[in-house]
Each structure stands twice: as structure tokens, then as C-alpha cells.
Amino acid sequence: MPGENLSRDEARERAALLSVDGYDVFLDLRSAVGDGNGEPRTFRSVTTVRFRCAEPGTSSFADLIAPNVTAVSLNGRDLDPGEVFDGSRIALEDLAAENELVVDASCAYSRTGEGMHRFVDPEDGEVYLYTQYEPADARRVFANFEQPDLKAPYRFEVRAPEGWTVWSNGAGELTDGVWRFEETKPISTYITCVVAGPYHYVTDSYTRDFEDGTKLEIPLGATCRKGLAPHFDADDVFLVTKQGLDFFHDHFDYPYPFGKYDQAFVPEYNLGAMENPGLVTFREEYIFRGKVTQASYEARANVILHEMAHMWFGDLVTMVWWDDLWLKESFADFMGTFANVGATRFKDAWITFANRRKAWAYRADQLPSTHPITADIRDLQDAKLNFDGITYAKGASVLKQLVAYVGQDAFLEGARRYFKRNAYGNTRLGDLLSVLAETSGRDMTQWSRSWLQTAGVNTLTPQVLLDTTGGRIAELAVVQEAPEAHPTLRPHRIAVGLYRRTPAGTLERYARVETDVHEPRTVVAELAGAEAPELVLVNDDDLTFCKIRFDETSLDTLRGHLGELADPLARALCWSALWNLTRDGLLPARDFIGLVLRFAGRESDIGVLQMLHAWADTALTHYAAPGWRETGARLLAEGALRELRAAGPGSEHQLAWARFFAAVAAAEPELTLLRELLDGTAGIEGLAVDQELRWAFLEPLAAHGAADESVLAAELARDDTASGKRHQVRCLAARPSAAVKAQAWAQVVEADTLSNALVEATIAGFARPSQRELTAPYAQLYFAAIERVWRERSIQIGMDVVRGLFPAYQDRPETLDATDAWLAAHEDAAPALRRLVLESRDDLARALRAQACDAAASDR
């Protein structure tokens, strides 16, 4: 049998043959606390699955990844585990019309965030468990048919250590030492869930009265580790949860179908969150140990609402196979922002979407691995890598365009019909398009072909011709272009905005026209005769998914007056466009950094400001000419300190500038100030240096040799928590020493003892832009190691290593040549591994082109 990597063809064949009636799963987790003789490795898992076979007498298989199988029984017939189990699959021969499979196995606890993850809190020694399965890791916990279209109801029973609480998808109670949970609705394997341990738990409830006289009551719960309980603002979590439930009930006309609604914030989580019905899991970093900006609260609310949207898009109605992953992720990404704006205090969430989420999508859609939103997913490794900016943010952007195309009412009515027709079932692209065609009256075929079934991002550029006086527009056209590799020109519903400066000194919009663009050149006739603009903003209000460019007059206006642009969404769109110009090697990195230094201090939207900080840092470390980096670093540090001192005392802008100053600090005066802020010998009015900010200040000190191991050990003693340990590990690996780098490399690449969170922290510390010479020897070692790492480690750790240790800071043509040589010599390597290397190669080639553009600017 082919092993762990289930193919689409195998899944189709099995779905045509089998249908599943239900699972009973018993887990004995008492081993989790250990017996004093070393770390526990396994727990007992007993699964009973009842299923039917359309062709009695044929064969199939069940999925299970486990160190050992004790017993297998099929229809009362005992099978030899050694003969039927190969480590990932259980062979099922001579199936009957109705079948019962019983599997008794020893399954492994995980340190990689896949399957049943086990975490020991260094603060108090308590053990915490949780499961994470997407796309196919439920088979690490119980035997099953691991594909999304073989839905079934589940009954879980869990025996846990005394004093623990256990949660699952359904409501549960403890009887006779066993936690027994209500049977679920029919759901897919990957969204079943178990959370167990001495978690802190807070409860609330939600009620809803419907017009037909019925009443819905949903018990709410929220959990976190005991060590995080003092920081847990559960009231705000519940507030957003209730607002979201109201919003989706108002718009979906389908009551929440899964009983209770628990939300667990868990340690060492690989994802942002996971939409397990009745028990959503989140990374615990969404519990804030120190002061954060409102952008962090907005992001958390967006994730809460994203996962809630999945209760309908993904859980109630699920894609048949991972090709149509977008049917849940694109919709949840769109609905998260849609609900954030419509239901919560975060009314400017579309600005964050335009500036942050779409930046992720633009990058992904220009990689060699770009793919249509409806992707070609051959197997589970493909599926794992397709949780990307295309499936999430581009898909959400396209849905925003769809709402503009068909109208919001038609879009939402289509969603309502989609839920009612396909509840507890599985769908494909055509199922959604058919209801949208019904509700909108539009033919969705061409729209789908253009937007969902092709890859690549279009570029829209205004062309402005003035009349002979120069005072009015004679003609304004929008030029649409597509990259050679993906030449599709798409139908875009856009708004074109015209802006000019007012006597008050602001840059304001004075004309706006919505139009459809689908040709290489589209004339916007409605704008003929309008007064000549200083700025033309194509895709004003961010209706479509495209890269926008500027005519020369508009670009000159932004160079001089970007900070005067009054509308925050328009400003965010201009910043995004300028960043795309920089990434494309059309705007020198030093010019982009200059714009940030000149105008970022006037940015009112805190999320946009923090994105500008991240972009400026990337521009310096990857896109600036090497000979200018030292100058650029000095300018950024000086500018950050200037804005830090000018920001309002105690404001979130002050906090953002403090973090950015730490990120770019490199010279001795800057490092000295960080030391003084840490030890209290210097201060900045209103800036509270809490524990999280202390670690932010310590990292650059460690990276520049100004904080040694003893300093970091003392800080860990001050913050002896799981969070503190991750920070310390990152800082330790960041120290500028050949021995330190060798140790970090060995811990991540040659050994397999670190948890997923500590692997991530070690990689982050190892790869430092200021230490290019120290890490240069590892470029060759990287290419020698990655195929072995991919083969031997879990896919999550493999992804972390291949992405995180790629020699991106060895940004020379020789590194590009070495990458090409590896790709040429490893044509038979796993496609998912090759994809990761190709993506990193593309980033490196882009950096070299941008550096050439920036170097040319020095000759101006």
C-alpha cells in the first residue's frame, strides 16, 4: 500500500465503495502524566466503526498511524495485526454489505502539534493535551476513514487522569471515571477534537429568539492553561462570540447546529485556529500577556469570527475533496472580516484586509507555485501546502468581488439555499455556483472560469489624457495586464477615484465612478470632463483583487503628499500599491523606506502602521542594495526613535514604534538605550516595559552580542513560563557565535527532540539578517539535508525547516545557482518539498532584482 500520503484517486474509489454509519472512540489518556520513568509515548485508542460497502466481497482500507496495533476485528473475525497493518493503513478484505471494524491500538503523543499534542508547562509541571487534525491527522489518534466526504456521527469516551477536565465536540459528563460525550452530527474526521487537562475554564451562554417562536440556547465556554488565567480576558472573547452568533443568525437563516460552543486556547499550536464544531481551538498567543495594540484585538476577533463562519461553511457543508478547500477557507476569510465590520467594534477591518491579508495573497499569487482558487490537489501533501494565501486571502478577495458583481442580497440568499440543500453533506464548485446563478440571475460559468479556475494577479493602471488647457480630463482609461505565465484578463468591478488637495491641506476624493473592466484597455467615459486630478486611485474602496499602479502625476503626488490622504482605506491601498512596486523591482527600496520615514508617523490606523514597519524591515533586509543597508538601518533606527519620542505617552502608536525601534536597533547608542530601558536607568514617558516588551528589547541585544547566556537565563528566571522559554530559546539562538549557530543547527536538523514551538523559536533565532557571514556555511548544508529531513520528520516540522532555514540572507547569485542545481538534481523529490524550495528560490530571485533596482537609484 502507498502509505501515509492518501491520493485523490484512492479517496474517490473508497468513497464510491463505502459509507460510514458511525464511530465509537475510546481513548485512555491516563498515561499522559507519566510514571516517573521517562516521558510517556503512547496512549490506548479503541475504535469501533460501522460502515456499509456497496460491493460486498471487495476490499478497502482504514487509516491509522500508530506505533502498535494490539487487535483488529472485522465483523467479529479477529485479524492478525501484523498482517493487516503496515504502520499507516489497515487492510480490509472481503467486506460485507454491513460491517463493523474494531481496532485496539497504542497511539503516540505528539510534540509537533499534529494528532494528540502533549505539552508540559514549565511553570508548574502540569500536562495539557489537545488534538489537531487538519488535513489528515485524526488517524494519529483513532482508526478511521480519513477523507472529508466520508462523514459520520461520533461518540467519544475518554478516561483521563484524576482531576482533569475533558472536552470534545459534544457536551460531556464524567461518570464512573470516564468522560462520555453526546453523539455528534455527521461531520468529517478532521474536525473531531479532544482537549484534556487541568485547564482554566470560564462559562457563559447565548440565547436567540427566532421569529417563528423557537428559542436557541448555546452554552459557551472558554479555556486556557492555568498559567495564562490571570491574562485571560474571557469577557471580550464571549462578547465577540455573541456578536458573531447574532450576525450569522441574521444573515444565514440557519440556526447554529452543533449544540455547545467551547473555545480552547492551547499551547504550541501550529495554526491560528481550527473550526472543530462545538470545540474551536486557537493558538494561546491570542491571550495577551502584555500590552498590545487594537490591531491585535481586531485580529483575534477576526479569527473568532472566521472559525465561527466555518460552522456553516466547512462543518455543516463540507467540500468533497481538498480541491475545493476554498469552499470553506475563502468563505470563512471573507465572512470573518464581513462580520467584524458588521457586528463588532472593529468597523475598519476592511482596511486591515486590504493592507495585510491581500499582501499575503499578492505574494502567493506571484510565486511559481500559484494555483487556481479551485486547486488541483493530488494528495494529502498537496493539501497541506494549499492552506495558503490563494485559498484564504485571494479567495476572500474574489468573494468580495463576487458580492460587488451579484449584489450582497443575492450572495447571502445563495448562501442560505446552499446550507439548506446540502446540510451535513459534501459539495463541489458547481453546487455553489448553481445557487448563486439562481439568486443573482447571472451566468456564473464565465465568472468562475476567470476567477476561480485560473491563476495569477492582474495589474490595473490608469492612463490620463488632459485637454489642451490641462485643467480637465479628456480621457481616462484603465489598462489591464496579466503576467505571461498566467495571461487571463478578468472581469473586474472597480471604483475609480479622483483626488486633489484642498485648501485645508488634505488630499480628498472629489469624484468616484464604478465601472466594469474586462478588456486590455477600458475607457471610463463618465470621467471625461472632470477636473484634472492629482491622484487617480484605481480600485478605490478595494472592490476587486488586483495590483494597482499609478500614472506619473499620481506617483509624484504620493511622494510628496501621501500623509495628507484623508481616507484611511485609500491610504492603505496606496501603501499596498507602493509596496508591490517595491517587491516588483520598480520602486527602489530606499525610496519606499523614505516614504515610511516621512509619512508613517502620520498614519492613524494602527494595523497599517504595524504593517508598514514590517514592510520597511523587509525592504531593508532583502530589497535594499547591500552597500546601502548600513545607511538604511541607521535612518530607520533614527526615524523610529524620533517617532517613539513624539508618540502620545501610553498610546498604542508609542508601543508600535517601541517594538519597531527594537527590531531595527543595531548601533551601540541604540543598543545602549535598550539596555537602559530594561534596567530602568532611562525611560520614555508613558512607555510601560512589560515582560513581553522586555523580551522584544532583549532579542536585538542578544543578536548583537550585548546580552549573553547569563543575562538570558536571568530573564527566564524572571519569566519562567512557556512563553518565556520560547523567547529565551529564540534569543539564545540569535547570539552572534559560530558555536551557537552550530548548536542551533544540530538541534533542529540533526536531532528530533524539540517541540514544534521550540523548533520554530530556534529557527527564528538562527536566521538573522545581521549575521550573514556566520550563517553562510549552512547554505551548502541546507541543500544536503532537506530531502532527509522531509523524509524523516513530520510534514509540519519538515515545512518549518525547509522554509525557515533556506539561505535567504545569502542573497547572492551563487545561492540562486545552488538552488537551481538542487532542483535539477532532485526532480524526483516529493512535489511538496520541491514546491517549498521553488517558492524560496522565487523570493530570492525577487530580492536580487529589487536590489539591482535599488543599486541603480544610487546613480541618480
Question: What do you see in this structure?
Answer:
The chain is an alpha+beta fold and about 850 residues long. Helices cover about 45% and strands about 20% of the residues. The chain is built from 28 helices and 28 strands. The strands form six sheets. Strands 1, 2, 4, 5, 7, 8, 9, 10, 11, 12, 13 and 14 form a twelve-stranded mixed beta sheet that branches. It has a five-stranded mixed beta sheet with strand order 15-16-17-19-18, with helices on one face. The protein has a four-stranded mixed beta sheet with strand order 26-23-22-28, with no helix packed on it. Helix 6 crosses helix 8, helix 19 packs parallel to helix 21 and helix 27 runs antiparallel to helix 28.
Sketch the major β-sheet. 12 strands, mixed
Low-confidence stretches: none
Q: How big is the Rg?
A: 28 Å
Overall average pLDDT: 96
* β-strand number: 28
The share of residues in extended strands comes to 15-25%
Distance between the termini: 63 Å
Shape: globular
**Helix coverage percent of residues?**
40-55%
Structural class: alpha+beta
Count helical runs: 28
List the helices and strands and how they pair.
Layout (H helix, E strand, L loop, with lengths): L7 H10 E11 L13 E12 L6 E4 L4 E7 L2 E3 L1 H4 L4 E4 L5 E13 L4 E6 L6 E6 L21 E6 L5 E4 L3 E4 L2 E4 L12 E4 L2 E10 L5 E10 L9 H19 L8 E6 L6 E2 L4 E5 L10 H17 L7 E2 L6 H18 L5 H17 L14 H6 L4 H17 L1 H15 L3 E2 L1 H12 L3 H8 L7 E8 L6 E9 L10 E10 L5 E11 L3 E3 L11 E4 L8 E2 L3 H10 L6 H16 L5 H11 L6 H18 L5 H18 L5 H13 L3 H12 L11 H13 L5 H10 L3 H13 L3 H13 L5 H11 L5 H4 L2 H15 L2 H10 L8 H13 L5 H27 L3
Parallel strand pairs: 1-10, 7-8, 16-17, 17-19, 20-21, 22-28
Antiparallel strand pairs: 1-2, 2-7, 3-6, 4-5, 4-7, 8-9, 9-14, 10-13, 11-14, 12-13, 15-16, 18-19, 22-23, 23-26, 24-25, 24-27
Helix pairs in contact: 3-4, 3-5, 4-5, 5-8, 6-8, 6-13, 8-9, 9-10, 13-15, 14-15, 15-17, 16-17, 17-19, 18-19, 19-21, 20-21, 21-23, 22-23, 23-26, 25-26, 26-28, 27-28
